[in-house]
Amino acid sequence: MGGGDCPWAGKTATNSHPQKDMPDTGVTRHFNFTIARASIAPDGVQVAGIVVNGQYPGPLIEANWGDWIEVNVYNEIWGPEDLTSIHWHGFNQQGTPYYDGVATVSHCPIVPGTNLTYRFRADEYGTSWYHSHYSAQYSAGVHGPIVIHGPDVVEYDVDLGPISISDWFHDSYDHLVDLVLTPTGDGLPFRPFSDSNLVGGAGQHPCANVTNGLPCTTVPYASYEFQPGKTHRLRIINTGASAFETVSIDGHTMTVIANDFVPVQPYETPFVTPGTNAAAGAYFLRAYNSPSCGDTNGPDGRGIIYYSGIDPNTTAPSSTGNKPPPANPACSNDPLGSTVPAYAIPAAATADTTITLTIGLVANSSGVFHWTMNGASYFGDLDNPLLFAGVQGSAQTSIFPPEQKSTTQAQTALCGSS
């Protein structure tokens, strides 16, 4: 996607600033989303979900770097009714902070029977996703992939598109929230175990383990076709609610070329765009949960890689996995020393202002755990989003510690003046 008729012709991932060099394409991409309840069984167990346009995962949003994206979102969540909002993960939203999609912060949630049209710029390029940002609703199925085409940091032959990796729960999202907000009695936060791990929106939960009467069948793994002698790009997205995921492909090494919307200097890893070093055949793509970062009661996630010429109906993978990744108690990504941006934006030698933010997870007097920032928690107001309150001069600064008030007001004023 690096030249020719592309709007970024002449620009590369190593010589162009992702925001300052963004092309003005003059193009608006239009999408219509309907959020509604549906009975779904991504791992074979039939549950009540909430989905986008009747499908799980939701439909792909695809655009070019510099395009405008316009999504008309209809809330048709009934029986019972529910609010919703959609967040566009990773976009800067410069000039459009009110379309960031975070209910109680950037706008009011969308009520059933109404709609909201989001409009924002594809101001970065790469792979990302959208998801509900109302409570924990996206764990019920409200999410989908985003691909913004732009300059490439390396050449490849085949783009396989997005592959979602996700934990999956049979329980409803609101009940999971209730459990998280209930004291455990042991002084530790409640950590829900997922029922399955999905690759490409599919998994296989052992039907023998279903004890609550839910219907269960065996669904096929998601499959992807490789071409011998070709280099393939996989756009892997962790769309899970809790789990820290590690991905591998049996018999293959992979080269990381981007993290989120940031092209990076390529580096190889056995865990997470495969090369051409494997013989033609069928291989498992595996997704592992890290036990300390969101564990599962189900098996590891699996997808299937078939090379061209292999009949997926008659050939099942017999490959064995790479050695499982070591425990990752810090739940951390690859070291920053490995993930070097392809286009480095140097930091200023000195800072004009230094703000220290300390993130914590603490129990209140009732034993309920909540997240804190500098010792305080923000409790959202559905009727008075923080951005609106800042513009109107009615920000509830009492919810922040006194030393944070001036910082919060300054940040809000900058958003309101953009």
UniProtKB/TrEMBL annotation:
<dbReference type="InterPro" id="IPR045087">
    <property type="entry name" value="Cu-oxidase_fam"/>
</dbReference>
<feature type="region of interest" description="Disordered">
    <location>
        <begin position="399"/>
        <end position="418"/>
    </location>
</feature>
<dbReference type="GO" id="GO:0005507">
    <property type="term" value="F:copper ion binding"/>
</dbReference>
<keyword id="KW-0479">Metal-binding</keyword>
<comment type="similarity">
    <text>Belongs to the multicopper oxidase family.</text>
</comment>
<protein>
    <submittedName>
        <fullName>Extracellular dihydrogeodin oxidase/laccase</fullName>
    </submittedName>
</protein>
<dbReference type="InterPro" id="IPR001117">
    <property type="entry name" value="Cu-oxidase_2nd"/>
</dbReference>
<keyword id="KW-0186">Copper</keyword>
<dbReference type="InterPro" id="IPR008972">
    <property type="entry name" value="Cupredoxin"/>
</dbReference>
<feature type="region of interest" description="Disordered">
    <location>
        <begin position="315"/>
        <end position="334"/>
    </location>
</feature>
<feature type="domain" description="Plastocyanin-like">
    <location>
        <begin position="162"/>
        <end position="275"/>
    </location>
</feature>
<dbReference type="Pfam" id="PF00394">
    <property type="entry name" value="Cu-oxidase"/>
</dbReference>
<dbReference type="Pfam" id="PF07732">
    <property type="entry name" value="Cu-oxidase_3"/>
</dbReference>
<keyword id="KW-0560">Oxidoreductase</keyword>
<feature type="domain" description="Plastocyanin-like">
    <location>
        <begin position="37"/>
        <end position="151"/>
    </location>
</feature>
<dbReference type="GO" id="GO:0016491">
    <property type="term" value="F:oxidoreductase activity"/>
</dbReference>
<feature type="region of interest" description="Disordered">
    <location>
        <begin position="1"/>
        <end position="25"/>
    </location>
</feature>
<dbReference type="InterPro" id="IPR011707">
    <property type="entry name" value="Cu-oxidase-like_N"/>
</dbReference>
